[in-house]
């Protein structure tokens, strides 16, 4: 895949060694995340709200209520920033100054547009369900026409984007390595617990493999 | 504790039943999170970047390199939004439309200021280390004068803030409850794996309880 072209806005000003415009790296981070943080501006004030999403090819889909003010503003052409962060570990150094975190993050900048066609809209909504729980879509009822109209779907092209990744052990000052102080990484990951059935589950309903075998970090 | 006063900017426009201005709720979410997403505006374009932080009383501390352009702009009075999101579960409904997530999030709006006094600066940096790994500070070397000067510390008062929380099973359309479709919640949590010692650990260095007993969701 061709790398994404850097722009002045996506070029890291610092620690550029941690940056990447590799489309495969960017897509993998977007595909692993479940929640993105959407940044938008109202009267000069930035707002950052969490929401779910899906990537299909070089498009990022967001969705929400058609009454949602953030989505309505973004659909009208307000500039947006979508950030996805995966936290991989706590980096414990010998000095406070060199403590850090291992993470993988992606920032996508641009202008979104409203998805209006019924077919693309359904495709985007299906992609969001499948992104969060693969194989779920086949088990559930799809949107009715009324539900489809109540949802606003936005498409953001992944054309101005970059990734930033930190991995590995702490990097201490040379003199500090002799300190009798434990240093290393505490790895972190998001894990799924035992599924909790809805108290109103119809009797005898089987639990599907998509739920019992649910795995993060696919 | 007195609740935080709502403002038009922090009052939920939709699903206000999920909103809270309770200071205890807001503080608990901020204290459990490890990473916040900081929103700021450059030339009308919103940017959202992840970073760590700590809460001390009604102040949120951010830090980074003194050369960091985001922190420098925020320290100069640019409006900021700091959002912390804890993802608690995937809510699997019988219809695509009613799929959701269980989460706890906090949004803090305002203007940050640069922490200039050495004593408060050290206190803020210590708080960030302790926030991420409790009891870590006593084991490590604190910032030298040069390191202290290389760090910019910002303080953001938690005075304009709100929380949003979703818990519980899916809420389906009444007619959908009869569907022979599994529904419920897949709980999610960030978990710590086995600590990975730095390959350059001084021989015989003991691993402290703060690392072996590290627990998230304290």
Number of structurally distinct domains of chain A: 1
Would you identify the CATH H-level superfamily of chain A? Answer: Electron Transport, Fmn-binding Protein, Chain A
Largest sheet of chain A: 7 strands, antiparallel
Overall body shape of chain A: globular
N- to C-terminal distance of chain A: 20 Å
Number of strands of chain A: 12
In percent, how helical is the residue content of chain A?
Answer: 10-25%
**What is the ordering of alpha helices and beta strands of chain A?**
EHEEEEHEEEHHEEEEH
Q: Output the radius of gyration of chain A.
A: 20 Å
Uncertain residue ranges of chain A: none
CATH 2nd-level architecture of chain A: Roll
Instruction: Classify the secondary structure makeup of chain A into a structural class.
Output: alpha+beta
User: CATH topology of chain A, which one?
Assistant: Pnp Oxidase, Chain A
């Amino acid at each position: 895949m061709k790398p994404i072209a850097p722009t002045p806005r996506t070029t890291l000003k610092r620690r550029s060694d941690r940056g990447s415009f590799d489309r495969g790296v960017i897509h993998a981070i977007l595909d692993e995340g479940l929640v993105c943080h959407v940044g938008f501006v109202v009267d000069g004030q930035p707002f950052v709200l969490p929401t779910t999403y899906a990537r299909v090819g070089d498009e990022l889909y967001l969705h929400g209520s058609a009454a949602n003010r953030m989505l309505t503003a973004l659909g009208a052409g307000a500039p947006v920033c979508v950030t996805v962060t995966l936290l991989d570990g706590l980096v414990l150094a010998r000095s406070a100054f060199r403590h850090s975190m291992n993470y993988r993050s992606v920032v996508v900048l641009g202008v979104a547009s409203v998805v209006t066609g019924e077919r693309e809209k359904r495709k985007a909504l299906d992609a969001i369900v499948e992104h969060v729980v693969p194989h779920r879509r086949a088990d559930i009822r799809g949107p009715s026409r009324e539900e489809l109209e109540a949802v606003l779907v936005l498409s953001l092209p992944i054309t101005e984007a970059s990734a930033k990744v930190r991995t590995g052990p702490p990097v201490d000052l040379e003199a500090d390595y002799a300190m009798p102080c434990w240093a290393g990484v505490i790895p972190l990951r998001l894990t799924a617990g035992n599924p909790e059935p809805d108290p109103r589950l119809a009797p005898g309903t089987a639990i599907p493999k998509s739920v019992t075998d649910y795995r993060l970090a696919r």
